[in-house]
């Protein structure tokens, strides 16, 4: 596969020593954004590793330090979005690794977030947007938790602009679960300005208690380099706010095993 040339060098001096970090990007039938996620990983300074959903080998995750479940329509979103992908052989291994003492960092984006809820790595569920239409727009998010493996490059209260595109993007949970997420600081992101899909309490992304698993509906991988992606609210430049997700996990790995 040929490489698309970069239009800007987004690497940082801190990223150079992390070239050994390897981030797996899972592809399911119907995945759309695996190459975009792999590009974001590369721009952050790590090496993307393609992972296949049907890999049953014991060493399927042995060569990666973290995993991204990218967006798309896995298995056509039949039954429920993410409901079939949840049973993929590789997902069983990801669930075990995320819940292990090693706490494998896992990021679920859009359909990946849906898979995480179906896999019970994250609570709640995703249903159709309250307006029952597919939506695609630039979306402002507010960072609520910067203590996770995927958000430590941000500041609490910081507003970032990324892309939103979904039709099953309404996050729902019972009031007890929502109260627990709020009380434990596990709401990672909220929508700012407008709730585009009716998600409870304007929730755009959440984390597990350990902070190694994060899911969000918008797409940070589409806001990682100048000249592409969403415009900032001022409309004068392109947002690269999504890159922080991928530099965050590298910082996490450096602080741990790297």
UniProtKB/TrEMBL annotation:
HAMAP family found in the cross-reference section: PurQ
Role, per record: Part of the phosphoribosylformylglycinamidine synthase complex involved in the purines biosynthetic pathway. Catalyzes the ATP-dependent conversion of formylglycinamide ribonucleotide (FGAR) and glutamine to yield formylglycinamidine ribonucleotide (FGAM) and glutamate. The FGAM synthase complex is composed of three subunits. PurQ produces an ammonia molecule by converting glutamine to glutamate. PurL transfers the ammonia molecule to FGAR to form FGAM in an ATP-dependent manner.
EC number(s) per entry: 6.3.5.3, 3.5.1.2
Catalytic-site annotation from UniProt: 110 (nucleophile), 219, 221
Gene: purQ
InterPro entries, A to Z: Class_I_gatase-like, PRibForGlyAmidine_synth_PurQ
Superkingdom of the source species: Bacteria
Pathway(s) per entry: Purine metabolism; IMP biosynthesis via de novo pathway; 5-amino-1-(5-phospho-D-ribosyl)imidazole from N(2)-formyl-N(1)-(5-phospho-D-ribosyl)glycinamide: step 1/2
Alphabetic keyword roster: ATP-binding, Cytoplasm, Glutamine amidotransferase, Hydrolase, Ligase, Nucleotide-binding, Purine biosynthesis
Protein name according to UniProt: Phosphoribosylformylglycinamidine synthase subunit PurQ
SMART domains the UniProt entry points to: GATase_5
Organism: Sinomonas flava
Subunit details: Part of the FGAM synthase complex composed of 1 PurL, 1 PurQ and 2 PurS subunits.
């Amino acid at each position: 596969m040929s490489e698309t040339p970069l239009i800007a060098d987004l690497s940082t001096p801190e990223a150079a020593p992390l070239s050994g970090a390897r981030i797996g990007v899972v592809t399911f039938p119907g995945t759309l954004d695996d190459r975009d996620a792999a590009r974001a990983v590369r721009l952050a300074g790590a090496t993307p590793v393609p992972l296949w959903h049907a890999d049953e080998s014991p060493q399927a995750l042995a060569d990666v330090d973290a995993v991204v479940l990218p967006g798309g329509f896995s298995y056509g979103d039949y039954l429920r979005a993410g409901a079939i992908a949840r049973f993929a052989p590789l997902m069983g291994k990801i669930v075990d690794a995320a819940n292990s003492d090693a706490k494998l960092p896992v990021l679920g984006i859009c359909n990946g977030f849906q898979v995480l809820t179906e896999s019970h790595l994250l609570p709640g569920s995703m249903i159709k947007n309250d307006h029952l239409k597919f939506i695609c727009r630039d979306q402002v998010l507010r960072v609520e938790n910067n203590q996770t493996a995927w958000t430590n490059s941000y500041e609490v209260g910081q507003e970032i602009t990324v892309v939103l595109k979904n039709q099953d993007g309404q996050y729902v949970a019972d009031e007890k679960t929502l109260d627990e997420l709020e009380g434990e600081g596990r709401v990672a992101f909220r929508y700012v300005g407008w709730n585009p899909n009716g998600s409870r309490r304007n929730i755009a992304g959440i984390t597990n208690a350990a902070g190694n698993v994060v899911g969000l509906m918008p797409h940070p991988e589409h806001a990682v380099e100048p000249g592409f992606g969403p415009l900032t609210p001022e409309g004068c430049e392109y947002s690269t706010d999504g890159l922080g997700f991928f530099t965050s996990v590298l910082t996490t790995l450096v602080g741990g095993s790297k």
